[in-house]
Structures are given as structure tokens and as C-alpha cells.
């Protein structure tokens, strides 16, 4: 983990409330693993005080990409950054997805902005492994597909793909992967992750989930992002022990 002053190369609007922020740092880019995150200082002032955590969306040469979804003053400020400005980035942080295990098919499951880590994951998965991507969102305007392959979609309002949620979509399509050596990778809101956890355990599927939390420090000092362990006598920290966990190791 190090702190970098990164120059913004671009900041492109990709949906009504989502921007793709591209920052330059060869040293940071060379040390990132899929599923890790960075803590970004929003402004040069103390308002807002805390850094904001963002999944690393992709790495291309010296460029690091982050998906910025506007849901408060901090993310709004980042969405307004211009090319040439400098941002203070702490990272890479946390533990990412384990991709060096044996599996024949990768199942990617993303809800809303939970799609953020998967362009990089998709690129790193070996070419001989089949990838199926399942995306869910409230409506068609919130679906983001860039960098993904073999995509199936569910929307709550039925405006695109299956009318329903992404776990219902998994259930509908599980015949295409249930008899294969599968590993599932999921990211999204906690209720979705809980449903994915239940689905994977019921179907005996190896599954890792990328969890979300407000992270004040990003590396475990503040103890502000606990998640319950299956071990009744301990808890884990999302920023330090995660954000990626095997579904067998945590309670949601």
C-alpha cells in the first residue's frame, strides 16, 4: 500500500449517474490484483473529511479506471473532476479474487454498480475458461456492460432482459453451468450478495463475493468496517481481510 498523486486522464459519463474515472500511475497500475480497491481523497480541503473507497475497475498500461456512481457530495465532487487535475489515491488495498484455482467456467454476478470490478477480472481470467456474466439493475438505464462478455440481464422493472432480480436470472439459467466445474464471483448490494450466498451454498458452487462498506482508513486501523465471521468468536474487517470473501467464511 502506498499513496500516489495521480493525474486524471479522462472522466467520462457512462450512465445518468455513473462516471468512468481514468487516472495515471505506472507504479500503482503494476501492483494491482483483480478485486482490490483504492481509497481516493475527494478534495484538497477537509470537506468531505474521509476518503472514498472504489473498486479497481480496470487497468490498461499505466491507466487505472474507477467507476464513480453519484450518491452523495463526495462522489459528486469526483464526478466533476477534469483531465489534468491530480487526485490523491491510497492503494492498492485489500484482498482480491482468487483466480489461480482450477475451474472450467467463471460465473460473474453483478448488481448495479457492483459491476465495477469485473472488467479487470474478465480480462485476467485465462482465455480457455468460459465466462458467463449475469447483470442486474433497477432499469435498463443502470445496466453497464463494457468490458464484460456473454451477458445476461435482469431488471426490476422488466425494461431490459428478465423482469426480476439477478439471482432469479441465475436460477433460470443454472442448467448451463450447474454440471460444470464452476467458480462464481459476485459484487453488489448486501441483500443481493446474501441471495447469491444462499444460491451458491445450496448448489455447492465455489463462490467469492466482494463486499461493500464505508471505509474510513482502508487498511484496518479504525476497525470501522466489520463483517461477521462464521467463527462465532471473531469478526473480520472488510478493508483488511476483504473486501473479497468466500461465502463459506462470512455471515451476511
Question: How is the topology of this model organized?
Answer:
Blueprint: E1 2-15, E2 18-24, H1 26-29, E3 37-40, E4 52-55, E5 58-60, E6 63-69, H2 73-79, E7 86-93, E8 105-111, H3 118-124, E9 130-137, E10 151-155, E11 162-163, H4 166-173, E12 182-187, H5 190-202, E13 206-210, E14 226-229, E15 235-237, E16 244-246, E17 250-251
Parallel strand pairs: 8-9, 8-12, 9-10, 10-11, 12-13
Antiparallel strand pairs: 1-2, 1-7, 2-6, 3-4, 3-7, 5-6, 13-16, 14-15, 14-17
Which class do the helix and strand fractions yield?
alpha/beta
Q: How many H/I helices? A: 5
| End-to-end separation | 28 Å
Strand content: 35-45%
Adjacency order of strands in the biggest sheet: 4-3-7-1-2-6-5
The main pleated sheet reads as: 7 strands, antiparallel
Cα Rg: 18 Å
Taken in chain order, the helices and strands follow as EEHEEEEHEEHEEEHEHEEEEE
Mean pLDDT: 94
- Poorly predicted regions are none
The count of strands amounts to 17
Helix content: 10-25%
Shape call: globular
Structure description:
With 252 residues, this protein is an alpha/beta fold. It has five helices and 17 strands. The protein has helices at 26-29, 73-79, 118-124, 166-173, 190-202; strands spanning 2-15, 18-24, 37-40, 52-55, 58-60, 63-69, 86-93, 105-111, 130-137, 151-155, 162-163, 182-187, 206-210, 226-229, 235-237, 244-246, 250-251. The strands form three sheets. Strands 4-3-7-1-2-6-5 form a seven-stranded antiparallel β-sheet. Helix 5 links the parallel strand 12 and strand 13 (206-210). The mean pLDDT is 94.
Amino acid at each position: 500500500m502506498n499513496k500516489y498523486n495521480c493525474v486524471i486522464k479522462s472522466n467520462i459519463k457512462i450512465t445518468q449517474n455513473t462516471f468512468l474515472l481514468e487516472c495515471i500511475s505506472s507504479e500503482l497500475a503494476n501492483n494491482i490484483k483483480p478485486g482490490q480497491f483504492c481509497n481516493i481523497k475527494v478534495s484538497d480541503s477537509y470537506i468531505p473529511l474521509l476518503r472514498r473507497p472504489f473498486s479497481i475497475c480496470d487497468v490498461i498500461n499505466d491507466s487505472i479506471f474507477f467507476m464513480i456512481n453519484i450518491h452523495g457530495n463526495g462522489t459528486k465532487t469526483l464526478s466533476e473532476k477534469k483531465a489534468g487535475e491530480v487526485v490523491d489515491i491510497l492503494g492498492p488495498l485489500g484482498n482480491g479474487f482468487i483466480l489461480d484455482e482450477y475451474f472450467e467456467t467463471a460465473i460473474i454476478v453483478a448488481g448495479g454498480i457492483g459491476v465495477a470490478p469485473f472488467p479487470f477480472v474478465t480480462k485476467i481470467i485465462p482465455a480457455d475458461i468460459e465466462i458467463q456474466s449475469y447483470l442486474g439493475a433497477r432499469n435498463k438505464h443502470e445496466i453497464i456492460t463494457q468490458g464484460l462478455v456473454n451477458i445476461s440481464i435482469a431488471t426490476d422493472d422488466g425494461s431490459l432482459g428478465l423482469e426480476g432480480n439477478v439471482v432469479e436470472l441465475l436460477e433460470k439459467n443454472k442448467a448451463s453451468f450447474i454440471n460444470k466445474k464452476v467458480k462464481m464471483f459476485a459484487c453488489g448490494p448486501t441483500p443481493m450478495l446474501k441471495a447469491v450466498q444462499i444460491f451458491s451454498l445450496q448448489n455447492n458452487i465455489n463462490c467469492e463475493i466482494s463486499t461493500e462498506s464505508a471505509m474510513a482508513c482502508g487498511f484496518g486501523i479504525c476497525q470501522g468496517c466489520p463483517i461477521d465471521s462464521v467463527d462465532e468468536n471473531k469478526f473480520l474487517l472488510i478493508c483488511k481481510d476483504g473486501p473479497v470473501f468466500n461465502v463459506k467464511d462470512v455471515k451476511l
